[in-house]
Amino acid sequence: MHVFFEDFLLPIIIVGMVVLAPIWIAFHYISKWKAGNTANVPPQAQNEQIAALHRKSVQMRERIEALEAILDAEIPGWRDKQ
Question: Are residues 29 and 48 in the same domain?
Fold first, then answer.
């Protein structure tokens, strides 16, 4: 067991600590930085995003209302079955 550890596991552990761990940590903080970097978005772009989300929500509400109307016509009392 001692030879196995020195010949195989010890180099893997050292490579992991020296090479892989710093890369992993760097990518972790890069992704955190990119996720939290929304403060640099110009207000105009934020307003456009909010307007686009509002349009999507209106479309979704209209679709839900249409689907509910279809269900009301085809399956009376479907709301009571829930």
Answer: no
